[in-house]
From TrEMBL, chains A, B:
InterPro entries cross-referenced by the UniProt entry: HTH_LacI, LacI/GalR-like_sensor, Lambda_DNA-bd_dom_sf, Peripla_BP_I
Record bears the keyword Transcription: yes
Organism whose genome encodes this protein: Pseudonocardia humida
Cross-referenced PANTHER family: HTH-TYPE TRANSCRIPTIONAL REGULATOR GALS, LACI-RELATED TRANSCRIPTIONAL REPRESSOR
Protein name per the record: LacI family DNA-binding transcriptional regulator
Pfam family, one: Peripla_BP_3
Signal peptide from the UniProt entry: none
Record's keyword terms, sorted: DNA-binding, Transcription, Transcription regulation
Domain HTH lacI-type: 4-58
Length: 340, 340
DNA sequence: GTGAAAGCGCTAACAT
DNA sequence: ATGTTAGCGCTTTCAC
């Protein structure tokens, strides 16, 4: 059934099991010659350490869990990819958990896998701050695109990004915008709105908020209708998926983008560059975020548990200007055409 | 550090540890009253079975690994999503492994996690048949979009799909097509080409093959150039990513799609519907494929190991006709415009 | 239906 | 530097 054990190797190599164990987990504490011999024998026998036996005594599993709020969202792909690669490089295994936008499922799953993993990567967690703080107190946790006091996190910088976004819109002549908000329990939704509103105030632009909306293409229909209703000439959607849905509905309604209304999204997913018109969006180094999060997590696993500061990393976002933003012709008809 | 054990529960409930164990893993073999009491006590104490201790004796981990050839390809995300959901429903955990298009990495990673999982889902494996057969002989394996004699698999039906694709092209007036092949060690690439060639022969269409190409957007440039070189009026790309890359290059070169040349892809990824022109492609129920694969795997875990037939499931593909295919104006100028 | 006890394969004191 | 020896928390015969 299962392969050779540490005993087989020990016997074959003429050493004690503890020596074999050390040869694998703590090579420095075994004599040069012994070590090579042991490893040699192990290789010959095809010995592979049993991770469960190992975990049982050492409480280390070489596994980390990545929990994403919605595996349906392509945005997470890049995060997952970065995390997987970094984990693999460190000989860690990545367990993938989909919270399906439900705080309840999220928590259930976290409990379920808690014993099998060394730590958690929580991407866009929908749980309340208190729950996250509590979890982080008992297990190593790194938050991604979510910030909670005292918990390490990697968040794509968006405050300045939102400012740039609003500035871009303002410079095109927009004087009124609407933010189509993401889910109520999305920290990002709140944080982005705050940044947008601040920038809008500063730049003399009127900003409204509508929502919350599920961050999906299909909820873009209702979101677009609501946005049009506000009379704003610029729409900032919570993410690219929603923005793409908005674009669709706008096309159906023969509202021209960007002539009649400008649309911008967040994340710069692969599809943002392909849709028509190509979407202006606030992108970020998502893959790198995934890597960084794993790095911090692994760090907190190896480093002594003494009070390291809960670090917060915020790699810069970048406003990618494409074709969905432009001068509103209705509002500023100094160009060629008239209003819609 | 870690929570209460089976001993704590046993003591509190006034039973033996074996009874507690049974209450969890084999409820039928414990008296009604005892069971409820044990479970009650366990809940009160916040007891959670330790999966490693459990795995150590039982050799079952409640975990399956999904290995994908390239996590970069959005196509896999539907597969992953389906698999994750089905696994979760069965209280199994999904481990995600990216083979990075390398048979070597694929094999290494499989070895690495072999002891930690109950079985493998191998999506678009790049390994030789022999290696897969060998692996399948020692561990439960389900292949996805790959077929190897004697190994259970779920493959989106594509033989008939390819035929429809070629028929669609032929009906539009195309008499010559080129298939831009995927990676050399991609089973799908070979299988699709065989089906395309057969259909082409049957329908009196000339078919060329070019490649292999990496199934990525960026290799679409060279692929497009080669395709144009063949003079074919229709291009069948190995997957949507490659097709999108082809579309890009064609646009750069001012080759009109579909007037000058038609383009079709495979997979019907999210972006296929968004690019310009929208891509005609052979889609499939990918999420369902992921689910089905997990189901078969779990089945082979629970069912006795006696010789079940290695089942092969092939859910139907569907030709999604969009705007990238049309009548070649150069070849059949019976419409309005002239050739390019 | 329930209990006693022997491991599963490994790590980690503690010796030497 | 290496060996001895307890367990880690659970499952699983084997008794009763």
């Amino acid at each position: 059934m299962s392969g050779p054990t540490i005993y087989d190797v020990a016997r074959s190599a003429g050493v004690a099991t503890s020596t074999v164990s050390r040869a694998f987990t703590n090579p420095a504490r075994v004599g040069e010659a012994t070590r090579t011999r042991v490893l040699e024998v192990a290789r010959e026998l095809g010995y592979e350490p049993n991770p469960h036996a190992r975990a049982l005594t050492s409480n280390r599993t070489q596994t980390v869990a990545m929990v994403v709020s919605d595996i349906t969202n392509p945005h997470f792909f890049e995060l997952i990819r970065g995390a997987e690669m970094r984990a693999k490089a460190a000989e860690y295994t990545l367990v993938l958990v989909n919270a399906e936008e439900s705080p309840r499922i999220e928590q259930e799953q976290i409990r379920r896998v808690a014993r099998s993993v060394d730590g958690f990567l929580l991407a866009a967690s929908r749980q309340p701050d208190a729950d996250l703080a509590e979890l982080a107190a008992s297990r190593p946790v790194v938050l991604i695109n979510r910030q909670v006091r005292g918990v390490p996190s990697v968040v794509v910088e968006h405050s300045e990004g939102c400012r740039q976004m609003v500035a871009h819109l303002a410079s095109l002549g927009h004087t009124s915008l609407v933010y189509l908000a993401g889910p109520r329990n999305s920290w990002m939704a709140g944080s982005r709105w705050a940044a947008i509103r601040a920038a809008a105030t500063e730049l003399g632009v009127t900003a409204h908020r509508s929502g919350p909306y599920a961050p999906t293409v299909s909820s873009g229909g209702a979101a677009a209708d609501a946005a049009i209703g506000t009379g704003a000439s610029a729409i900032i959607a919570h993410n690219d998926l929603l923005a793409i849905g908005v674009l669709r509905r706008l096309a159906q309604r023969s509202v021209r983008v960007p002539d009649d209304v400008s649309v911008v999204g967040f994340d710069d997913i692969f599809a943002a560059d392909l849709c028509t018109p190509a979407l202006t969006t606030l992108g970020g180094p998502h893959e790198q975020v995934g890597r960084a999060a794993v790095e911090i997590l692994l760090d907190s696993l190896t480093t002594r548990q003494d009070r390291r500061p809960a670090l917060h990393v915020a790699p810069p976002s970048q406003l990618v200007i494409r074709d969905s933003t432009g001068t509103p012709l209705g509002a500023a008809p100094q160009r060629q055409g008239g209003a819609g």
